[in-house]
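ok, trying the design again with the full structure, not the truncated one.
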């Protein structure tokens, strides 16, 4: 006979936190959001810890290289999407790893044949005043000079003047060789009183720049996620079909952690994939698995050797799995049950397997709720898709500035590997996701800082200075639908609407 669970499954929106006692110590600046990303043994430190408990979803519209760098710079990490060829995904990972913190690949490039008008237009577009002049006008071409605002005066020159006539040529520039350390580069900048240092490959092609201003920004980003060689930490999505081909390429490209990306992870396919990775690489290659929504699913993946387990079916903003297939579970209930199983598993085995709550975060406080319910970190798609750094197009629709955001199960993404059940057909039988717009929200940095400050403030209200303390002390209450209405502004005429979070 079928098993019935007659308790309704709840979403984050149906819970609130009840404040606990907060001492004078409980102020946001004392709160740490550090959290484990991968499993560890009792008494040991996890191999990778996140500085902020947020990772970006394994999606075409979210986790490209630009977002990966910016998120790592600010304490989280991205999982580069796997719905592209193994070669393309590995190349994307390699480009993130090539962006050493402090070494930036040049986004403003022209050739000597361009004109002052081109310089001005580019400056307007990128907001950057240093333009690399390369033979072919690309970011990795042979460097022939640099144009900075000191090289021209618009009032005294013609817009048609050729760049070659006013750039600072290579022989007048201080440059460094690829392989130089960041601190050596900074010493050269200080000793020569220059604002930027081009770093060149042996054959004169441009690798990137070190900027004086980044020395300060380095100090401004104390939460950077860096590996031992000061490269940004990055994750990558894999599937349970082409792992034998994909995983080696991703590992060679420098991916720090992998995640099997599937809409339903309680499957033999995931165990086979993890086994293959363990046989080939032992524990050196970290791999998360999922998604599951109950105790059984968690225990299966933990025992299969997953480094973290991802929770959530059908709660994603673009996801129609529940409508299409009738599977899933309210995200809050799923997280609560899985985290209880995680704690029991830890008690029994001494191995702590972090839990990631994936999808369905609508308001910033949902992140705090997920953490309070036991999640170690959350994965977000819609949230990150709204930012400048996401790979999708910015548009104006009906007077509102939006960015495009589409599900991996939509016809647009065609991520068959995430949804097929071993059928092996390289096409989707039916859609499980939609193509949509999300309101454009600006730069990742400011948004993330605001979200983190909200999380920290709530943690202080609960008397918690760390995520484990929050999980121990949190008092959560279910709310009635009437009290949800009471939670927003009500019975007043609003003058203006706040931002959506
Ligand atoms: P959200 O943050 O609510 O936008 O949800 C993102 C999550 O939704 C992803 O991490 C993934 O688990 C899920 N997803 C991605 N594509 C689809 C789909 O097409 N159904 N679902």
């Amino acid at each position: 006979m079928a098993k019935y669970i007659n308790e309704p499954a709840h979403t984050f929106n149906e819970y609130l936190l009840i404040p606990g006692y907060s001492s004078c110590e409980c102020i946001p600046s004392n709160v740490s959001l550090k959290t484990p990303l991968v499993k560890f043994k009792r008494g040991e430190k996890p191999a990778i810890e996140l500085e902020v408990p947020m990772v970006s979803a394994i999606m075409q519209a979210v986790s490209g290289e630009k977002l990966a760098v910016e998120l790592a710079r600010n304490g989280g990490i991205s999982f580069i999407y796997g719905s592209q060829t193994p070669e393309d995904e590995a190349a994307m990972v390699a480009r993130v790893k090539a962006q050493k913190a402090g070494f930036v690949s040049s986004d403003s490039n022209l050739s000597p044949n361009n004109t002052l008008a081109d310089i001005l237009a580019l400056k307007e577009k990128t907001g950057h005043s240093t333009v690399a002049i390369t033979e072919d006008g690309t970011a990795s071409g042979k460097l022939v000079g640099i144009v900075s605002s000191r090289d021209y005066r618009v009032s005294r020159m013609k817009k048609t003047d050729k760049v070659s006539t006013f750039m600072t040529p290579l022989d007048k520039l201080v440059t460094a060789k690829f392989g130089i350390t960041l601190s050596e580069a900074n010493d050269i900048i200080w000793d020569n009183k220059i604002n930027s240092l081009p770093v060149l490959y042996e054959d004169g092609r441009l690798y990137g720049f070190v900027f004086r201003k980044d020395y300060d920004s380095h100090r401004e980003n104390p939460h950077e996620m860096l590996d031992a060689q000061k490269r940004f930490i990055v994750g990558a999505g894999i599937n349970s079909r082409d792992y034998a081909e994909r995983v080696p390429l991703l590992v060679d490209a420098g991916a720090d952690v992998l995640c099997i990306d599937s809409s339903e992870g309680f499957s033999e396919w995931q165990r086979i994939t993890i086994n293959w990775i363990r046989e080939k690489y032992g524990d050196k290659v970290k791999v998360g698995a999922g998604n599951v929504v109950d105790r059984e699913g968690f225990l299966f993946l933990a025992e299969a050797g997953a480094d973290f387990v991802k929770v959530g079916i059908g709660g994603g903003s673009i996801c129609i799995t529940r409508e299409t297939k009738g599977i899933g579970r309210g995200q809050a209930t799923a997280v609560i049950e899985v985290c209880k199983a995680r704690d029991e598993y830890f008690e029994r085995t001494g191995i702590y397997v972090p839990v990631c709550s994936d999808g369905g975060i609508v308001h910033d406080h949902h992140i705090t709720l997920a953490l309070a319910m036991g999640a170690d970190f959350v994965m977000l798609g819609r949230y990150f898709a709204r930012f400048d750094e996401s790979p999708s197009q910015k548009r104006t629709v009906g007077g509102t500035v939006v960015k495009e955001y589409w599900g991996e199960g939509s016809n647009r993404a065609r991520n068959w590997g995430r949804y097929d059940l071993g059928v092996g057909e390289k096409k989707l039988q039916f859609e499980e996701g939609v193509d949509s717009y999300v309101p454009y929200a600006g730069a990742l940095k400011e948004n993330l800082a605001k979200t983190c400050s909200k999380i920290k403030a709530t943690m202080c209200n609960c008397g918690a200075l760390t995520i484990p303390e929050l999980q121990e002390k949190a008092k959560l209450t279910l709310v009635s639908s009437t009290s949800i209405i009471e939670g927003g502004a009500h019975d007043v005429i609003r003058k203006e609407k706040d931002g959506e979070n």
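Keeping the full-length input from now on. Residues 57, 59, 312, 316-319, 321, 358-361, 379-383, 407-410, 432-433 surround ribavirin monophosphate (CB under 6 Å).
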